[in-house]
Amino acid sequence: MLFSKVELLDGEKHKNLKWSCLKASCPQSCCLVPDRTFVVLEEVVGLSRHFPVVINIETDDKGKDERLLCAYFRLKEDKGGCVYLKNGEGCLLEGEKPYTCRQYPFFIKGGYLALDLTCPGFSESEGKALWEGQFVSTYFEKEFYAYSLKLEEGKAQTEAFLELLFSLDLIVGGKISYENVEVSFNMVDEKRLSRLPKSDLEELFHRGYMQIIYAHLNSLQNWERLIKRFLFGPTPIF
Ligand code: SF4
Ligand code: SF4
């Protein structure tokens, strides 16, 4: 299970550790496990081209409800992994994948750098060394932890966005059906949006939220891609 062996990065304990992604030969590809990921506001426009990006209310580890923006990789019932995972090749999105994918198996936990040692890419014999002297290697800093920082920095902005949408009563339940499959999710209601007082609309424009809202609404058409892959198996995406 992913994240069942998390450790804070430790200069002594992990001093000889190396990492490389096993890609197609990985026995537990991280792209097979989750059906979704949380995303931050600045990712929504880019990700809306590839994934449904919706509003979830989920329970955190302390039993508290939290509002999240989530991109879906696959339907829950679909055991084939993310729709962008190509057999034998790995991720088809490369530079356009979500920040959570880009940072993995590294991330920030409680303000500290952390590792998910369930990833079989860690070893003391193969891959790139995690350290350059007493500092984290610039490769890991630029290619992985930079995205962990973006996720940390983007959380407050994303919460403020969702807070405003809920306070304006714009969120409703939505459904998409294709063949015999139906998917439910939360979305912005366009009718309620259009009926908002001018001052609220101006605030949404002023904060740059309108572009995000329409990216979210356009992203809903990507549910069909996920449903088709569940019903008919992999098809060429590009
Ligand atoms: S990051 Fe780790 S778990 Fe994911 S595919 Fe690479 S080696 Fe496997
Ligand atoms: S977007 Fe790419 S890296 Fe992320 S889960 Fe999908 S295939 Fe894996």
In short:
Helix content is 31%, strand content 26%. It is α+β, with helices and mostly antiparallel strands.
- Per DSSP, what share of the residues sits in E-state strands of 2 or more residues? 25-35%
The geometry reads as globular
Work out the count of structural domains. Answer: 1
Q: Indicate the structural class.
A: alpha+beta
Total strand segments: 15
Helical content stands at: 25-40%
- Could you name the ranges where pLDDT drops below 50 across 5 or more consecutive residues? none
Descriptive report:
The chain is of the alpha+beta class. The protein has one domain. The chain has seven helices and 15 strands. The protein has a three-stranded antiparallel sheet. Strands 10-2-11 form a three-stranded antiparallel sheet, with no helix packed on it. It has a three-stranded antiparallel sheet with strand order 3-5-4. The longest helix is centred in the middle third of the chain and has 30 residues. It is globular. The model has no long low-confidence stretch (mean pLDDT 95). The chain binds iron/sulfur cluster (2 copies). The site of one iron/sulfur cluster (SF4) has 11 residues, from loops.
Keywords, please?
binds iron/sulfur cluster, alpha+beta, 3-stranded antiparallel beta sheet, 31% helix
Fold topology:
Layout lengths: L5 E3 L9 E2 L16 E4 L4 H4 L5 E7 L5 E8 L12 E2 L3 E2 L7 H5 L2 E4 L2 E5 L5 E2 L4 E2 L1 E2 L2 E2 L1 H30 L3 E8 L2 E8 L1 H5 L3 H9 L2 H11 L3 H10 L6
Antiparallel strand pairs: 1-9, 2-10, 2-11, 3-5, 4-5, 6-7, 8-9, 12-13, 14-15
The structure holds iron/sulfur cluster (SF4) (2 copies).
The site of one iron/sulfur cluster has 9 residues, from loops.
